[in-house]
Amino acid sequence: MDPLDDIFAAMRVRSALYARLEAGAPWGVSLAGGESARFGLVVRGGCLLEVEGMAQPVALAAGDCYVLAHGTPYILRDHPNTPTVSCASVVRDRIGGLVELGGTGTAASVICGWFHFDQRAARPLLDLLPVLLHVKMEQARALALQGTLQLLAMETGEPGLGSSLLVSRLADIVFVQAVRAHVAANAESQTGWLAALADARIGPALRAMHKEIAHDWTVEALAAVANLSRSAFAQRFRERVGQAPLEYLTQWRMFKAGNMLGQGNAALGAIAAAVGYESEAAFSKAFKRSKGMAPSAWRAAAREGAVAA
Fold first, then answer.
1. How far apart are CA 293 and CA 307, in angstroms?
2. Distance between CA 221 and CA 142 in Å, rounded?
3. Closest CA to 63 of 113, 18, 17, 108
4. Closest among 4, 8, 5, 3 to 205, alpha carbons compared
5. Which of the 8 DSSP states describes residue 100?
6. Pick the CATH number of 195-303 from 1.10.10.60, 3.40.50.2000, 1.10.10.10, 1.10.760.10
7. What are the tens digits of pLDDT across the range 174-198?
8. Which residues form the HTH araC/xylS-type domain (predicted)?
9. Is the pTM of this model over 0.85?
10. Helix (H, G, I), strand (E, B) or coil at 302
11. What is the structure's pLDDT at 194?
12. Structural domain spans, the chain
């Protein structure tokens, strides 16, 4: 199993909002920070993206997609000196529809969206993503993403039976498409966990752990998968991932167990076995040490929406 697949399988978008900006120079709009992730696709023309905390603006051209998974405040505008208006003041009751903005100069069209994740399931991936995912789409991938966004527009603009479910699933797809494209386009220049997935030695070890999470892994066994000595593997893994190998494995076991506890009625013993523990007692001890509460308490809190990650 690809580690990204493992995460995406557990993630869910709880709600999504959408609008299409049709702007003419001079124009500018500012979006406040919040818990929701933000995404955008430039359909026509171009603009500048200014993200809080980033020193330089990013030039966006037609076909470019951006995702701000952490809800960071940002600005879109045609020129660095153009004044901006708040998104809330221009969108208002036009969520799911067309928002006209600016003057009569050079035109730009940007599809913007906001979505709220199930924070408990999404936290592991969100914590690993950079502030900005900027994807310069080749034509085929840009068209695929535009198609998804158009479907999202239809469902948010004219709700029908099952629209809430469809909107959540379409927003899932938008996010997956953007992350996948970002990883493919930046594999050589990235650092951190996403780069570790592409590492010729560490990547296979990560995939092995995700594929067989219940296996009795040792550092020696993982080093063999990576075709490195034990010490070289441990050092390289920590440098790439930021954690020791078995610390990472435990984290993912607890993540998987937490999802199983919150999403179904599986017996505690079955969950323990599924994530590599021979007894309920050993699993419960490890889970409480990791999450700060017993598995039974976690299950009850998860069902009430009271736990995070």
1. 10
2. 41
3. 108
4. 3
5. E
6. 1.10.10.60
7. 777 777 777 666 555 555 677 788 7
8. 203-301
9. no
10. helix
11. 72
12. 3-186, 195-303
